[in-house]
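BACKBONE GEOMETRY TOKENS:
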Amino acid sequence: MRLIQRIGYYLGGFSIGLIVLAFFFSGKKTSCAYGPEARVLKNINSKPLKFQIENSTIEIDTSLVKELLKTGKVDFSKSDTRREPCGIYIVKGEMNEEHVELSVENCENIAKIIALSKSND
């Protein structure tokens, strides 16, 4: 078998595999959350949110908070991830053109928003 035939067979099988994968994953909400930040945000977003914010100087809009939880960045250096029973994560992002920090207590069945403050970043 010549090299050109081998390449042809390889490309044919590869394209059939891509079509099969596209068929299986079409219509499903699949995502590739491999990094620790993406996994934490995906885990928080998969749970019901409860707001326990006291004495916040920022007006709270739940839709903006949910958007911040999807697009924000987790600051692991300020977070207390090993806290029992619920880890606390600091999510930084932009809300209403202001830099904000959101403290989220990530429990097993629920995610609690415990603080919302302006950030210096």
In short: Helices lie at 3-25, 36-45, 62-71. The radius of gyration is 21 Å. The chain has a mean pLDDT of 85.
